[in-house]
Each structure stands twice: as structure tokens, then as C-alpha cells.
Amino acid sequence: QVQLVESGGGSVQAGGSLKLSCIGSGYPFSSCGMGWYRQAPGKERELVSKISSIGISRITYADSVKGRFTISRDNAKNTVYLQMNRLQTDDTAVYYCAACGWANFDYWGQGTQVTVSS
């Protein structure tokens, strides 16, 4: 049974930082590309960042987060991270972890709320 458990969301003032974590289980974590998506109220879900599986060094960021967010993974801990710095009010959304894929992902977490206030 595949599980993706996100944590680290919360409320922060603009300019602050948060670090999201996603622990995956039930699938070959190190062999899977991982991603972070977000969905703001009234908007479609969008890609934030994704990182390829072990041995293939590819990372992608949405233009809106380049230079502020950093994705990383620790295959020994089955965990993918999203370090979010210089947060802006437009970053307010539910953030979802996604596993196993690249253009599309097979598995999704339940989401964690990030709220940035001015």
C-alpha cells in the first residue's frame, strides 16, 4: 500500500521560511521521480518542483519559485523535502507530494496547508 505523508506546513509571515517533508512508503522510493505541487483557492493545481530518481540528475522548478525554493531527497529516509525561503503571499496553497513519474505522477499525498500572510 502506497503512502505519502506530508508535514511541515503552517502559517508564516511574508519573507519567512518553511520546510516541507514527504515520507513515502509502499513503492521503490529511490527509483521514483518525486514532485511537489500546490493548489491555491480557485486555481488549478500546479507543479512547484520535481526531482528525478537516483542516478538521473534532473530538477525542475516553476519560474515563480526559482531561487527561493529548493527540492532535495534523502533516499535512505524515503523522504523528499521542499525548502521554501522568502515566502510570498502568492505561495499560499495546499502543497501536495507526488511520487513515481515525471510528466505525470502515479501517487499523491493528502496535502499540507501553507499560509503566508503579509
Overview in brief:
The chain is built from no helices and eleven strands. By secondary structure, it is mainly beta.
What does this structure look like?
- The chain is mainly β.
- Helices cover 0% and strands 53% of the residues.
- It is built from no helices and eleven strands.
- It is globular.
Strand and helix layout:
Elements: E1 3-7, E2 10-13, E3 18-25, E4 34-39, E5 46-51, E6 59-61, E7 69-74, E8 79-84, E9 93-101, E10 105-108, E11 112-117
Parallel strand pairs: 2-11
Antiparallel strand pairs: 1-3, 3-8, 4-5, 4-9, 5-6, 7-8, 9-10, 9-11
Which percent range fits the helix content? Answer: under 10%
Mean pLDDT: 96
Specify Rg, calculated over alpha carbons: 13 Å
Please give the alpha-carbon distance between the first and last residues: 40 Å
Q: Count of DSSP helices?
A: 0
Which strand-content bin applies to the residues?
over 45%
Which short descriptors sum up this protein?
globular, seven-stranded mixed β-sheet, 118 residues, mainly beta
